[in-house]
Amino acid sequence: MLGRTANGLFWMFRYLERAEHTARLIDAGLRMALTRDMVAAEEEWRSVIATAGQREGYEARHSSYTGIQTWNHMLRDPENPQSVLAMLGQVRTNARLARNAISSELWEVVNDAWHHVSRMLARPLGQNQVGEAVSVVRRLAVLAHGAMIGSMMRDESYHFARAGSFTERADAVARILDIKYYLLLPSLSYVGSSLDTGQWDTVLRSVSGDRAYRAIHAGQIDARGIVEFLVLDARFPRSLAFCHRALKAELAALAQIHGREGKADALMREADSLLAGRTIDEIFEEGLHQFLLGFMGRNNAIAQAISADYRFLS
Amino acid sequence: MEGSRALFDEMHDPSGAVRPAYREFSRWFSEQDAAALERKHRDAETIFRRTGITFNVYGEAEAEERLIPFDLVPRILTAAEWRRLTRGIEQRVRALNAFLDDIYHRQEIVRAGRLPRRLLLDNPAWLPLMVGQRPPGGVYTHIVGIDLVRTGEDDFFVLEDNARTPSGVSYMLENRETMMAMFPELFMRIGVETVSNYPRRLAKSLAACAPPACTGRPVVAVLTPGIYNAAYFEHAFLADQMGAELVEGSDLRVVGGRVAMRTTAGYKPVDVIYRRVDDDYLDPLSFRPDSMLGIPGILDVYRAGGVTIANAPGTGIADDKAIYSFMPQIVEFYTGEKPILANVQTWRCAEADDLAYVLDRLDELVVKEVHGSGGYGMLIGPAASREELEAFRAKLVARPDNYIAQPTLALSRCPVFVERGLAPRHVDLRPYVLVSPDTIDITPGGLTRVALTEGSLVVNSSQGGGTKDTWVLKE
Fold first, then answer.
1. Shortest Cα distance from A112 to chain B (angstroms)?
2. What's this model's pTM, rounded to 2 decimal places?
3. What is the pLDDT of residue B460?
4. Who among B49, B246, B264 is closest to A115 (CB)?
5. Residues near B10 by beta carbon (within 8 Å), at least 6 away in sequence
């Protein structure tokens, strides 16, 4: 397939993941805001924006943190290139670019949802509309993954698309952990201690991990357990270990199709040795922040190597 | 306009009786509930929107995508009508290819005094680098769209020959898909010739024109200007349906004497390029050194037999409107037969007598730019205001050779679905023709464009026209 098309697929799924992740963050923020007092809610929205990496853009336009400003900024502000609307636009543009490499089912899901969402986000959303908008975005992601799994050939297209999803997902989860860790910990001595359970609950919700985590830990919320779950539990589809393993499988499939390995595969092996067999104690000993920075850096290097190995750009 | 003259209605004869082609449809229609049809009509829009069958309108600041309005009443032709049309189209397309081969070689038609030499040499679509060049298989116009209009039972005229990169075929295909999805029972009751194998026929036809350098199964690619092009949907659609790659100029480069595309595994040669870009954007080395678009050196490869370009460079001259006015002579010169399909009467404003006639009757005529297309830059005399007429008169006098004029035709009308049932609107027809070294293949049907505004004669989608599914009935 064309390198440009592979690039389109890779980014189509990165943006889809990013849009979904942003929608989840808003969802978690909404829940938090409803269950806390005003001051705490403001803090919560501030951390939602920070977690999404949109602080600079937001603060350039607003001097305070309120729910309505936050979700409108993140969902639809025409000035915000990282809004969900802008990202879904990118999803669709990349789907159009790669139109020949995706199934009609997948294209129609994306196209249909884009028309729906762009109508929905044409005007600022009030308290009673934001929940619906967020769930439409999340449903789009579910439908798109379903359409892909059910209708696409397991050829290069599929593997580039999946590689895009897992690269982005790993980055988003590592980022949310890293930011929460900084925001929530008054000082390093708090590492591993019992922390504000509500905040950690938000972290879990923003990766749709609350249910799974509760089932494993019988409802006990503790920081160490959550970090272990999100970093090392390879059964959970948004943990770093899962994303890493899945990305590795996609790269292996691509290498097999092409009959050769590239720089991305070499980097993958290197990353492997840094994650395999690690325990949560070791990670805390190294320092979670250091660990996450290293993880994100390698993840990003792998993404760039994929782009070079498979001639995404001329 | 000759408003008093009876307009030809394709569904009803002058007594009001339904013509044979529409009989079964009319029976079915009378059994339908208007509200249900209205719902179906909205369903159709939803289908188009979801599938992404949209186009961008040139000249609009926001390159937003629009739907071309779709009318759910099919345009129906009988087998006998179609047979006659295909004979005429085939003859015309054969002549077009012979003409192109001749003008880029011995120019017998000029030597015989049937065509002024200046019409070739002064023409922007004339491509000197094609002189002496014969494309693989001898095919110049691999894909042609012949625009036909009708004014009476047996009176079909060719309005335009689209020999560069005719568009709209995806609408022919999707209109049919939509009709079959909405009204399956209609297709049970009425035998309609299929159009859905067009992409297969196109792939086969293109592969049959593979260049000498092609050794294995021909690799076909559709070359698009990109996602912001008005017809991008169609480019992607055709590539998808043919199982071909959809490439942009930046994906291609000349490697080892071949044109190759950048794949995830390196550069791979392409044998046949179905290009949906103009000549000017093919090769910056030959055309526009300032251009970032195109593939440097592609024309050298082409001339050495390393790649097939469809349609061939330089074919645009055959759909020039000044050349059009000579088509009756061209058909006769190359086929030795009288043209089966007539031209619309055309005055060449470059000629003094014709210009005088046109200036005299500007308010009755349609005046078009010689090199224009898409309904842009034309004057429809009867619909123009006094100011518009005067402004156009000035342009005409300043550059007469830039214009031709034609009578305002009493285009036939077909019913469209409106709130109160059916109402007649003007239509034209563009059948699609595929040319390979030994066959001319005409898909039974085509694109019917319809002027949705009552009384309007402009069917162009860029100017408020819509489309209909076009049926050719089985014998």
1. 5
2. 0.91
3. 76
4. B49
5. B19, B21, B22, B75, B76, B150, B412, B413, B414, B427
